[in-house]
């Protein structure tokens, strides 16, 4: 089944998850394996080491090879058919979701990352670290697990990168201090406004307006923390020429006025 990349990223970024265990396995060339179930109570990531196979979960078939990583939910029926030319070797990494924000840990879906040596490296590091006892190595295992997830998500985003959105992000960074509009940016990247908003949201998970607002407010926070610049001047520097409107937007985002935020002790 298809799950939006932004939802996958949100799951790994905002849910409370932890590495539990892993194993490596192999299916001979032309061989099969199945009539068994994925582990109960945990989710898994199936990462190809070499070869290729068709991996079915609850009757849904996925082509697996380097560059395709399969996410499996708990207690799902497995059927594997390895390709005829070479044995399929793979790693299954289990993780537990302690607190879920989006409920996709129970689902099966494909993550298209493209081939990337860092994914291979972190997966093999996990295999090596998981063989040894000790709290320090256990800590290192957890860190490596999240490095693997970060690399996977970065690679997956690169597979769907849209040049129009990249151009727009650069234009926002260059012009957020000016009274620019979304229509202006859409015109400059050569895209109809509605189409531009759709592509932007699809890639970044937020509307162009939300992105511009967050960009401006993050810059405002930096100025409030690091300078004694009056609030009205901060508003102007980050692109708000109405300081009262700036204060309303800031409070809506952070539940504090700019002055209250500046007076917080860090």
TrEMBL record:
<dbReference type="GO" id="GO:0043565">
    <property type="term" value="F:sequence-specific DNA binding"/>
</dbReference>
<dbReference type="InterPro" id="IPR009057">
    <property type="entry name" value="Homeodomain-like_sf"/>
</dbReference>
<dbReference type="InterPro" id="IPR014710">
    <property type="entry name" value="RmlC-like_jellyroll"/>
</dbReference>
<dbReference type="GO" id="GO:0003700">
    <property type="term" value="F:DNA-binding transcription factor activity"/>
</dbReference>
<dbReference type="InterPro" id="IPR018060">
    <property type="entry name" value="HTH_AraC"/>
</dbReference>
<dbReference type="InterPro" id="IPR037923">
    <property type="entry name" value="HTH-like"/>
</dbReference>
<protein>
    <recommendedName>
        <fullName>HTH araC/xylS-type domain-containing protein</fullName>
    </recommendedName>
</protein>
<dbReference type="Pfam" id="PF12833">
    <property type="entry name" value="HTH_18"/>
</dbReference>
<keyword id="KW-0238">DNA-binding</keyword>
<dbReference type="InterPro" id="IPR020449">
    <property type="entry name" value="Tscrpt_reg_AraC-type_HTH"/>
</dbReference>
<keyword id="KW-0805">Transcription regulation</keyword>
<dbReference type="InterPro" id="IPR018062">
    <property type="entry name" value="HTH_AraC-typ_CS"/>
</dbReference>
<feature type="domain" description="HTH araC/xylS-type">
    <location>
        <begin position="166"/>
        <end position="264"/>
    </location>
</feature>
<keyword id="KW-0804">Transcription</keyword>
């Amino acid at each position: 089944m298809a799950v939006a990349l932004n939802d996958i990223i949100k799951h790994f970024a905002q849910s409370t998850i932890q590495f539990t265990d892993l194993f490596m396995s192999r299916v001979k060339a032309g061989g099969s394996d199945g009539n068994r179930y994925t582990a109960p109570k945990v989710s898994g990531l199936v990462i190809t080491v070499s070869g290729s196979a068709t991996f079915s979960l609850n009757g849904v078939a996925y082509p697996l090879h380097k560059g395709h990583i399969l996410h499996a939910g708990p207690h799902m029926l497995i059927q594997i058919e390895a390709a005829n030319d070479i044995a399929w070797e793979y790693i299954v990494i289990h993780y537990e979701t302690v607190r879920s924000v989006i409920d996709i840990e129970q689902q099966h879906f494909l993550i298209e990352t493209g081939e990337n040596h860092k994914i291979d490296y972190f997966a093999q590091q996990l295999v090596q670290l998981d063989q040894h006892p000790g709290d320090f190595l256990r800590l290192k295992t957890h860190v490596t697990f999240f490095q693997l997830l970060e690399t996977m998500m970065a690679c997956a985003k690169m597979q769907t990168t849209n040049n129009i959105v990249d151009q727009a992000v650069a234009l926002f960074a260059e012009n957020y201090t000016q009274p620019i509009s979304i229509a202006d940016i859409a015109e400059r990247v050569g895209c109809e406004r509605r189409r531009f908003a759709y592509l932007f949201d699809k890639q970044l998970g937020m509307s162009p307006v939300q992105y511009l607002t967050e960009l401006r407010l993050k810059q405002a926070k930096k100025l409030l923390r690091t300078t004694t610049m009056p609030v009205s001047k901060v508003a102007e520097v980050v692109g708000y020429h109405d300081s009262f409107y700036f204060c309303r937007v800031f409070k809506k985002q952070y539940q504090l006025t700019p002055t209250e935020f500046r007076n917080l002790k860090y």
